[in-house]
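Subject: sequence -> structure tokens, single chain

Hey, anyone have a minute? Need the predicted structure for the following. Not urgent.
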Amino acid sequence: MLRTTIYKCLGIACLSLTYGACSTPSIVHRTENTTTPAGYPGKDAQDTTNSAYIQWRNYFTDADLAALIDTALMNNQELNITLQEIEISRQEIRARKGEYLPFVGIRGGAGVDKVGRYTNIGALEANTEIEPGREMPDPLGSYGLGLYANWELDIWRKLRNAKKAAVYRYLSSVEGKNFMVTNLIAEIANSYYELLALDNQLELIQQNIGVQTNALKIVKLQKESAKVTELAVRRFEAQVLSTQSMQYNIQQQITETENRINFLMGRFPQHIRRSHQAFGSTMPQMVYSGIPSQLLHNRPDIMRAEQDLAAAKLDVKVARARFYPSVGISASAGFQAFNPSYLFKSPESLLYSLAGDLAAPLINRNAIKANYKTANAKQVQAVYNYERTILNGFIEVANQLAKIKNLDSTYTLKSQQVDALTRSVNISNGLFTSARADYMEVLLTQRDALEAKFELIETKKQQMNAMVNIYQALGGGWR
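Reply:
Had a minute. Here:
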């Protein structure tokens, strides 16, 4: 009889499995493309030397900048929020792991039950004796203590795949933290070099204010000797006032840049310690880009997208397993009696149970189908996101390599322009003093020289930013 029952249960399970497998909705599968070009434009495709493997302390050798980055890595609120997300993902793994292990608990209880005398149960109890000459107590108590267990057999690996998906999401959160570390280091470095550039511009303005003030004094003396008119004096005076107003704009930018760095460091506004001589002197002279395929293992955003894709693939398997029957086992064992003195009297108070159940979806499986198709759509999304992240990483590196090359040429030409205009200022001042040049030539030459020097400082800042950005684009900084 028992063997017949087992065979019937197995038959039902086979039918349910066959029905579930045959009626699973068809989905569109897409395999990710991780192929990258052999090399970057204009670079040797065989050179695998990569600056991304340099530790950030060795890449950014400015001691003041290193101290700022250290503080930010400890105190930045957004980074600390991300660290808590990692902890959340870690606990999700523990929760998923517990789902495919047996649930065992202890249960105890006490109560009392009074039934009517003229009910069927009351009539039976009225004629029941516990032992000769001793009737059943009324009301009837109930005391119990025992263990219970529930276990879903993970035949189709639904629960194990869910746990593995949680592991991949945990790894994704770790890569997300690494990506944020890379961005944080780059943002602080760029802001620091912007601060140095502003300091140099402010110093340049103050030097020009001194030069223009001296020129104004000479023009006033020449007016007194009737060599120039009042118009020349007013034009020189206006030039001095214009340059003086520029320094306050620079000072405001310095304040905002300092506060941006302070915010990234998780502290209230205060002075940012820095060395003016570090501008342009503490950056690597050469950056090695390696080969594009190295981005797959260096850039945290690409590795994060890869982990998300792996988790999405497992989600599809989990959703598919819901079409198949689930097998559960439940058991309990303990003691129960109407009086505490009889509670542990064996075998009279001993009770136990063991049961198995088989459940499979049969009709109205729309929710399961919808979840399955949703999981697949998210998996296809993850494929596209992975490919997009790889493409974006390659383009960022290619752009920064081209920018470094073009800025080198720009800086060389700007330096020559500044030299030429500096000589022009000296020549125009000499000619004006000897009354061989108009004052407008002096003003225009001074203005052009100041603008050219500003542009030279801006170009140097862009060069330093490009060196930071190429390090970030290659995936450096998080190691």
